[in-house]
Amino acid sequence: MNYVGIDIGSTAAKTIVFNGEKVIASFVMPTGWSSKETAVRIKGQLESLGFNVESADIKTIATGYGRISVEYADMVLTEITCHGKGGYHLFSQDGVIIDVGGQDTKVITIKHGTVSNFLMNDKCSAGTGKFIEIMANRLAVDIDELFSLAEGGTPIPISSMCTVFAESEIISHIGAGQPKTDLAAGIVQSVVSRVALLVERHDIKGICILTGGLSHNQYFRKQLGEKLRREIHTHDLGKYAGALGAALIAADKFKH
Amino acid sequence: MLNLPENFKSYSEARQEGFIRLKGLKESGKKVVGVFCSYTPTELILAADAVPVGLCGASEDPISYAEKTLPKNLCPLIKSSYGFAASDTCPYFYFSDLVVGETTCDGKKKMFEWMNEIKPTHVMQLPPGRTSGTALATWHSEMQRLKDVLSRTLQVEITDDDLRQAIHLKNRERKAILDFYDIGSLKPTPLSGYEINTLIDNNTFLFDTEEKIAILEKRTAELLEDYEKNFKGKPSRPRILITGCPTGGVREKIIRRIEELGANIVGFENCSGPREQKDLVDENKDPLLALAEKYLRVNCSVMSPNPQRIEAMDEMIENYQVDGVIEVILQACHTFAIESSRIKKFVTEQKHLPYLCLETDYSQGDTGQIDTRISAFLEILA
């Protein structure tokens, strides 16, 4: 029996295949404009790896913003539950999971191995991957370049709470001739502050785990750790935490 | 001859019937007083031989109209209430001879100044708390002031006997409402939270208190029978207590969705619940003083401090055998928003139950996110 976890986020779609003991396949693809098409592409990719999701010996759970588009899924669950399960599995310790997503940033408290509480950013996209993407576009760099520029800069404070206003703020700084490195550092700091604020609204007991798209970014991790004054743990499979959680829950639910 | 508003045909049947009934009452010479809040002592209105009518304020439609005058970043309930009045799309407002408001928040009290330009609006000045030595005296004198305004505007004399009768009638109505709410404490509940919210709301379209009492008593008896026959001994879905701001304007987006996604709302610790009904007016005291004492006990977050709300919540969590608490905060409702941290602390640390706060407005813009939050919360309870 194999268990497939599919996490279709607003930016990237992550897939994990778990055989009941270990992860035997994983891949990521851009979500694109249609999560329905993405779900079909994932199905094709799984078939090319030898996994037929329609067969009786594969159980699939879909999560993330595009979860309802995965018509062949046996079950859908929210990304909160799946990230909680996946994040906990990576470290086997209670604590707080911070998932900086494309559209939503989530802070999930894990107590006795399960989700006990969670917070999400409000309607506004400040403090999410979307914010970084928009600001990188404004500086005419890609996201990785934005982070390397930031490392060499002195942050210019960005005070606007809302992405659109923050963009205007950046434009006025650009107009005033501020160096790109300082702007990049200011943008990263702004995201770090927003995420930290959400985390601090939780009563942190145990370890802090960073998952999601930014979990591989050492600079972001370090900045967030300094802001929260604690160590931030990451994992090679951090980006896959939601998909992993979905696959693990599938194994729990459908095991005979 | 009174005219119905131009867009009358677009109103739902229940509300249309209410309008027609009210039009009939007006034509028979009855006076109508529009009200918004559970602090309004409707006994005084009844004693003045007038009909108290809950005014419109639970729809997104007139909000853009209100924003011509009011700031955008304001509570949707206030904007909707004013928008209905200013755009002349609430027949209940239209038929009102007088509107009564209270200073339950800064947004409302300043909005009432604008409303007063459309229709005479009397605002009762609430004391900001119950603990100061003058709170009861202030509120007592506000009762007297409302009595004078009603007598003058409606040209009636309100005797103590009228008032005692009205108090007795309202107390009977409160008992009937409480018995109806009590159905929610049965496990599993035979009554949906959506129905609790809707029935209580629909009752504001009725203008005969005896009729209201009869409808409530009949429904309560039916539900009890339904429980014995079809529900008793069956498994229960997760049981949710709703708290926070009034939920009339987010009934579809939040109340209905919680139940569609797999839980039962068993009680409301907000204005749609027993907050105002749970204690009666003392029938053995001077009526105005008894009214002042009773309405000062309403546990709205506008009162500072407000530990009674926590006590009420404690009692409801136990009585209704609650599994989780969802707090609904309307955008820019400062007193409830600030109090929510205390509610969260109480629910999670003292009652050891999961708590979720949903901050929203009347728009549909956050429907997807609200669904995700509710689903994730119910997955915790599963």
Question: What order do the helices and strands come in, and which of them pair?
Answer:
The complex is a heterodimer of chains A (256) and B (382).
Chain A: E1 2-8, E2 12-18, E3 23-30, H1 35-48, E4 58-63, E5 75-76, H2 79-91, E6 95-100, E7 105-111, E8 114-120, H3 129-138, H4 143-151, H5 163-175, H6 180-200, E9 207-212, H7 218-228, E10 232-233, H8 241-254
Parallel strand pairs in A: 1-4, 4-5, 6-9, 9-10
Antiparallel strand pairs in A: 1-2, 2-3, 6-7, 7-8
Helix pairs in contact in A: 2-8, 3-5, 3-6, 4-6, 6-7
Chain B: H1 13-27, E1 31-35, H2 42-47, E2 50-54, H3 63-66, H4 76-86, H5 91-95, E3 98-102, H6 106-115, E4 121-124, H7 135-154, H8 160-182, H9 193-202, H10 209-231, E5 239-244, H11 251-260, E6 264-269, H12 287-296, H13 307-319, E7 324-330, H14 334-350, E8 355-360, H15 367-381
Parallel strand pairs in B: 1-2, 1-3, 3-4, 5-6, 5-7, 7-8
Helix pairs in contact in B: 4-6, 7-12, 8-10, 9-11, 11-15
H-E string of chain A: EEEHEEHEEEHHHHEHEH
Shape of chain B: globular
Determine the strand fraction of chain B and express it as a percent band: 5-15%
- The radius of gyration over CA of chain B amounts to 20 Å
CATH class of the domain at 13-156 in chain B: Alpha Beta
Residue-averaged pLDDT of chain B: 93
**Pair with the biggest interface:** A-B, 15 and 14 residues
Describe what is shown at a glance.
By secondary structure, chain A is of the alpha/beta class. Chain A has 8 helices and 10 strands. In chain B, strand 1, helix 2 (42-47) and strand 2 (50-54) form a beta-alpha-beta unit.
